[in-house]
Each structure stands twice: as structure tokens, then as C-alpha cells.
Amino acid sequence: MDLVDGVRIGSTTAGFPALQDIPLDQIERIEIVRGPRSSLYGADAIGGVIQIFTRRGNRQGIHGHARLAAGSHGLREASGGIDIRGARGGIGLDLAHQSTDGINACSGTYDPNTWIGAGCFIVPGTHLDRDGYRNNSFTLRADFAPNAQWQFDARAFRATGHNDYDGDYVDNSDIVQQVIGGHARWSPTSDLQIALTIGRNIDDSSNYLAHAFVNRYRSSRSSASLQGDFTVASGQVLTAGFDWQRDGANVVDPWSPFARTRGNRAVFAQYQGNFGAQDWQLSLRHDDNDQFGGHATGGIAWGYDIGNGWRVTASHATAFKAPSFNELYYPGFSNPLLRPEDSRSSELSLARSGEGWHVQANAYVTRIHDLIAWDSSLNAPGNVDAARIRGLELTGQLHLGAWTASGQIGWLDARNTSAGFLHGLRLARRPRHSARLDLDRAIGDWRVGITVIGESSRWDDVANTLRVGGYGTLDARVQWRFAPGWTLQANVDNAFDKRYETSAWYNQPGRTFALSLRWQPD
Residue by residue, what is the 3-state secondary structure of 52-109? Predict the structure, then answer.
């Protein structure tokens, strides 16, 4: 599940959020919560929650910032913003532009005996061109706290752009990504807090073949949540609330139009208790979905500080996810008999922290019933009766003088456990091994760093007949603070120009570079 400033986003037709349409210059920070979170956040939170917080001012007075950048493949970026803040609130505005000439995404090869379904190869030899991208966006925000008990804030984000891609039916789109939300919090005492959040996300794409209009996908998601947090005793908090959501889709297409809406209502509760070295978390939720009826989910988590910096945690939770409108209704490429996904996940974690360092190991297993996956043999989505995903992650961070290092090593075994000829095969597009290392050093007004990423091979289809090879890349960066508030930064990504794919037949960029100038007074 993905949120922007507390508002749930995502296309109700495609079934996933267009995160690429939110420029990095509009983002202040990103928070990731691991594991199934359906009980507190709702459906789709099977694997975790990613929440994006757009920029916000936190200093009184008038403050501004600006950035210019240029790089490979005609990359051009410009952004800027201003915040005006007083003792009880403030307003702010950020603007951003990004455009690139892009790369040729098609690898230029096609074997109809082994693969059918890569859209840019239905007509062999076509689409060997660059695929450009353009994005203009703004964020407008305001907050006000009339007294210590009340706090209000409102935010609006909108991005418009144009995207070129490879396809024989459509090959370019005009896009709109919009998130509007408001939040009110009342805290009459230190033991009670009640919050109301409302929001609306629009994901709109008008699609063309050259300059001829082909179709339009307009997705909308409206949501509201009322939540209360009650401190029932020292170190013990009870949370209870109500969620409402309505998803809509309107597809304008000469051959396959459809319009659908779906509502969901839910009640939820969570208990968090701290008892010295131990802490507990219990959660329960019931969703009433207009299309798929009632679903109950819940979770339990336990943590224990062993001593000497050691901590162990264990958790178990359930979740469910409804099919998207495209998966259910798009003519010729859908399956109206799809069932929601149901999952059960368990995780065990062992961590140790010291002065300037932290290491952690996470072992997990998730069992999914009715996993929704694309079936190339049917050219439509289907339910995998049973699937099992288990893995192990080792992470670490170290701060030593001017050096900062962080790393991750992951092992993943994601398999189809359904009865039949697919039993035991690996789930598509999931590498078995992955690793990442970030190493940075500050030297006076300079900062240098590298990032090394490696992933093993993966299968691109459920039958495990199309293999996509593994890869490794190295990125490098250098930053120079040449005057107060002024920074010059250079980046080189994929420095050794590694050619690789993460999805069959679609290229990733080779070596790229970017140079940026930033002004942000202290």
C-alpha cells in the first residue's frame, strides 16, 4: 500500500500507484513499514506500507530553496519553493519540472516460439526509438494550530505530464496525478487524541497512437478515516477507528469502455503495551467490501529487549487484497471470476545496536491464497491457488567518524505451491538473491559516495520458461558545498555501463550522469 501525506493513492484500474510521477524534489521523506498491515491501514497492505511525505516548512520566517539539474539523455530538471511560517502555522508552495529524451526501451529481439505478450514486439522491428518523459508538478500546503488542543493542515499535489513508450495500439500518454487531503487533530488531554483525515486521489491517463486519440483511463479514490488514540495506562495505548473508501474507474474506449465503482467500510482497533523490557501489539479489523463482502484481519507482535543492545521481535498477521478493475473488467484481457488474495505472514527479527552502529536479521514467511498473477497462456490474470514466499534479510548501518555505511543482503524463495504442473515453480519477477551497499565519506565541504547493487536472475513468467539474467551496478556521487547554502553535486549511475533487464525485452539505462546546483539556506 502507498500513501502520500496520509492519503491512500493508486490506480484503481492498473492496480498500482504511479510513483514515478511524484518528483523527488517534491518529497521530504519516505517511511516504510514492513509486513502485513491490513488491520490498521486496510486492504492491499499485504507486504507493507510506503508513505511519502511531501515537503513542509518547519522554521519560522520566510525561507526558499531552488535547484537546477541537467544530464544524460537530455535530462532537464528545475524546482523551487517558498515557506512562510509564523508561531501558529504557515503556508508553502513548491514547483518542479522534469523532462528527458529517454532511451530505447525495447531490446530489439523477439522470439514468437518462446514469448508472446511483450507489447512492443507485436510488430517486429518497430519501436526502436527513444521514449521521452515530461512532468510538471506543484505542492500547495497550509497548516494552523489555534491553540494547544487543535491542529489543522491541508495539502494539494498535482502533476501533469507526457510519457512516450512502446506499443502497437498506444505509444504515448498525457497523464494527471493528483492528491488532495486534509487533516484535523484534537488533543483535549495528554491521554486522548482524535484525528480525522480525508483525501482524494485522481490518476488520469489519455492515451494516443502517434497523435490519434485511442482511449482514456480515469481512476479515482476517495477516503476518510476517523481515529482515536487513548492512553489507558502508563505505556499502554488503545487505538480505534473507522475507515471509508470509494474507488471509481471510468474507461473511455471505442472498443472496450467500462465504468465501475466499489465502496469499502471498515472498523479497526489496536492495542500497544509496554511492560519494561517487553512490548506487545494486538490489532483487529473488519472490512465490508461492496463486491467481495466481509473480511476480518488481525495481527499480533511481541518485542523483548534482552540487554546489552540486543532485541528480539516476533509477529504474525493476516491481510487481504481485492483485484483491480482492469483485472476484473478490461475486455479481452481480464477475468471477472478473480477472487481476492488472502495472506498469512510470520516474521522473526534479531537486532543489536551500539554506539554508531546497528545490525539486524529478519526471517519471514508469507503464505498467499488466491494470489493474483498474469497467466501468459490465457493472456489474462488468474488466481494462483497457493503461493509461499519466505526469505531472510541481513541489514546493517555504521557511522564511524567521517564514514557512513549501510548494507543489505537478501535471500528470497517465492514459489507456487498449488497442486498441478506449476507446483514448486518460482513466482515471476522475483530475484532469489539481492544485495546493496552504500558507502559515503565527508571531507570538509566535500562528500563522496558509492552505491553497489546486485540481483540474481529471475523468471519472467509463471511457467518458468523465460529467464532474465542477474546484474550488478555501481553508482558514484560527489557533492561540494562551495558557499553557505550552495551545493554542487555530480552523479554517475551504472558507471560500468552494464546492460541488463528487470523485465524481459525491456532495456534499463546504461551509464548516465547528472549535474545539479542547489540553493537552500541554512
Answer: EEECCCCCCEEEEEEEEEEEHHHEEEEEEEEEEECCCEEEEEEEEEEEEEEECCECCC
In this structure, are residues 464 and 377 in contact, taking their beta carbons and an 8 Å threshold? no
Q: What is the full DSSP assignment across 487-499? A: EEEEEEESTT---
Which residue type occupies 344? R
pLDDT tens-digit readout, 288-310: 989 888 989 899 999 999 999 99
Q: CB of 203 within 8 A of CB of 161?
A: no
β-pairing, 48-54 with 2-4?
parallel
State the pLDDT at residue 117. 44
At 191 the three-state DSSP class reads coil
Question: How close are the terminal C-alpha atoms of the chain, in Å?
Answer: 35
- What's the Cα-to-Cα distance from 497 to each of 72, 102, 144, 500, 512, rounded to whole Å? 13, 16, 50, 9, 8
The CA distance from 250 to 180, in Å, is 20
Q: Which residues contact 100 (CB under 8 A, 6 or more apart)?
A: 73, 74, 75, 76, 132, 133
How does pLDDT run across 223-262, given as a tens digit for each residue? 999 999 999 998 899 999 999 999 998 888 887 788 889 9
Nearest-CA neighbor of 460 among 468, 449, 452? Answer: 468
**Residue 28, C-beta contacts closer than 8 angstroms, at least 6 positions apart:** 53, 54, 55, 56
Using the predicted structure, report yes or no on whether residue 123 has a pLDDT greater than 60. Answer: no
Percent helix / strand / coil, the chain, rounded to 5: 5, 65, 30
Give every CB contact of residue 309 below 8 A, 6+ residues apart in sequence.
Answer: 352, 353, 354
With residue 261 as reference, give the H or E element that holds it.
strand 258-275
What would you report as the CA-atom Rg of the chain, rounded to the nearest whole angstrom? 24
Residue whose C-alpha cell is 488533543: 187
Contact status, residue 263 vs residue 290, Cβ threshold 8 Å: yes
pLDDT of residue 126: 59
Burial 409-433, CB ≥16 within 10 A → b, else e:
bbbbebbbbbeeebeebbbbbbbbe
